[in-house]
Amino acid sequence: MQSQHVAPRPTPSATDVDVEQAEAALVEHYPRLVRLAYLVLPPGLGRGRRVLTAHALTQRALPGKRTSAPAIPAQSTGRDGDPGYAFVRLQVVRTALEAGLPLRRLAWPKRSQLPPLLPQVWGLRLFPRSGGTDELALDQRLSALSGPARAAHVLRGLEKLPDGDVRRVLTAAGVSDPDAALREADTTPAQYALLDSPEFDPCALQARPTDLMRRRQHSRAALAAAAALAVCGALVALPGDGWGPDGAAAPAYAQNPAAEAALDPGKLLRVAPLAWESSARTDFSVWPARGDLTGDTALLRRALAVWARPGERVQVSVTPGTPSGGPAGPPQLLYAGTVDSARVVILYDGLRIARYAEPKDGAQGAALDFARVDGATAAEAGAVVLGRADGNVRYLTAPWVKKAAERDLMKPGAGVMDLDLTGGITAPLASPATRTGDCASWNVLQLTDASGSRLLTDLGELVPVRLTSGRPTAPHEVSGAAALRTWAPFACSLADARGQGVRSVNAWTYAEQSLPDANGTATWVCTRAETWRGGGPRVLAQFHTPGGKYGAVAAKAENVSACGARDPHVLAGVLWKAESGSWYLLAAGSRDTASIRATGGVRATSRGSLLAARTKEGAQAGLKGTLDDGRSISALR
Fold first, then answer.
1. Is the Cα torsion angle 80, 84, 90, 92 positive or negative in sign?
2. How does 429-448 read in b/e, with b if 16+ C-beta sit within 10 Å?
3. Are 333 and 271 in contact (CB under 8 A)?
């Protein structure tokens, strides 16, 4: 890391700020301020200490009494002209820069240079969720900058300040040469959208235990263990010349023969290239090993060691309900090769897919992603994410896939664009998983094999999600024109299921309703996202009027049986305004709904599965339904 120098803080023109004003700004913008501190702090602290230090510096940013804030803009929307925010942001930047200064002999350290007293966490390691290879590469580039240059890059990208304001903030924070910091920051690509990634969010954290076995073994000799760990920690922290034999893995826990066998690259399971053709199974267990690095024993050893013992520099991502421990026995090798700017290894242990990635330029650090895939069918074992870069995703497909294509789910009549398929690897296609802002398109992967075509979508995890259509008791692939039209208005609602460990999402058109005042026919669709872990399904009842580009979510629920194979029924309602200006309560149930009753602010009943009652804007109503078999059904909520 380059050296940095923070000079004594100058006295700029100022605006008075009292404690209450600064506290209000800190509370309102706390997540952004902590993210700012985390990004400016030197990465050499380690992810766990950076998280705690970022929170400590932000919480200590309040003034002790009425003070003055420098005349520096607060920055982007929501903070313009707020001197309280400008003050606490300046304090956060200044103390984060001080935390990166080297300790000097015969000089009392500043408070920010010492490990934080508060907050403290015992027995756990906390770190943000892992991003992709883009975030890992950015973190490495930021770590190579000096503290002032890193602060300049973050103020430009996260705070969206022009260079003149960045220069004033750095000057007020005590940087002696802000122009040099800006020039150094220019050497880092302006991938500012990545700064908002979960990878750099110290408020959304993952927790892992500390070394449990070592902690237990040394409990009777705490003083001796502390001394031994201090010596070992100092040795591990010494800079090296590159990867050790186990890469970024933590120290081994024990010399266990079974555990060592699972980590031996020579014992990895490798399936014959044509085994799937004669096997009764069509899942990940019959995938052959592919990629240009399947013979790289050192790479495979690092991947296995990091899987078993992810160290401090490893960014771990786990889908909900997926265990992250090491393999019980030698796993199966699915892929080892170069993908964009990383070397990637994909392994399968019968329950999980594990993806290991390390920078191919030899920089320290690695990423480790897990996804649960037990019980996968041929349709669900069709592809695995190899990597994401520049808003695109690249897949490794199953050996039985004959053709790959890309299509926009929001444009059912637009056709497909064929993707090159080389060695089972697709050309990059646009991913909706990392997109922010308006939803104008939703690109999905279309795979074709001997049984037909199916659609998969990227929801930000290791295994893409299968899309289906039809009644929950008999869903089918989204391959025909009718199924594509069903999904088109509701494609953007898939964003609700990002990062939830989703296995498949089904869209069921359960009712069509003629709108009052001759406004055409509306469609009621229920989407249900099933997960790999079984629990936590997410259900949306959605309403689409003629000519509308998007559907509207009428009701939302989680951990319910409605709209699923076990309970293929649903009831939902919505307040709707006609072109004439009149307001109506509209409700619809599945086909076997015998009657619907509205209570509360709207009182109405209807025979059959549809209800329309005139009401007023803002009316509150409850809905109850009766099925043909006499069973009661409540509205989805």
1. negative
2. bbbbbbbeeebeebbbbbbb
3. no
Task: Classify 171 as helix, strand or coil.
Answer: helix
Tens of pLDDT, residues 165-217: 999 999 999 999 999 999 999 999 888 888 888 888 888 777 766 655 545 55
At 200, the amino acid letter reads: F
pLDDT in tens, 33-52: 999 999 999 887 888 888 88
Cβ-count burial of 571 within 10 angstroms (0-12 exposed, 13-18 middle, 19+ buried)? buried
What three-state secondary structure class fits 86? helix
In 409-532, at which residue ranges do the beta strands (DSSP E only) sit?
Answer: 417-419, 421-422, 425-426, 429-430, 443-449, 452-457, 465-469, 476-477, 502-514, 521-531
Select from 390, 342, 346 the least CA-distant residue to 362. 342
d(CA 373, CA 353): 7
Question: Which residue do the tokens 């707020």 mark?
Answer: 82
Alpha helices per DSSP H over 433-556: 481-487
Question: For the whole model, what pTM was predicted?
Answer: 0.64
* Terminal CA-CA length for the chain: 53
Token code pair at residue 3: 């050296």
For residue 354, the tally of other CB atoms under 10 A from its CB is 24
Q: At CA 459, angle to CA 456 and CA 465, rounded to 5?
A: 30
- Report whether 394 contacts 426 (CB < 8 A): yes
Percent of the chain with pLDDT over 90: 60
